[in-house]
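FW: tagging you since you asked about this chain on Friday. Here's the raw sequence from the shared folder, copied in full. Didn't touch anything.
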Amino acid sequence: MPREKISVEFEIKKDLDQMLEYAAEKYNIKDKSKTLRCILDYVSSEADWDIIFKKIRCNGCGPKTGWSKE
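HL: got it, structure written out here
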């Protein structure tokens, strides 16, 4: 049985929005919202939270400009 969805608003950087769009297109996912839900489901059930949240990342600092499909 599908879980109830709620609408939330938050800010992300433009390159991450482009990443969600790219993933949706590449994997034939209906929209960016579903793509993000897939990522969150993975994080909630399979990912190692210490690896994700204890390492400091800043993809916009230094020579990198954020996510890129290249």
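FW: Residues 6 and 66 are 28 Å apart (CA to CA).
HL: agreed, and DSSP finds three helices and no strands in the chain.
FW: great, closing this out.
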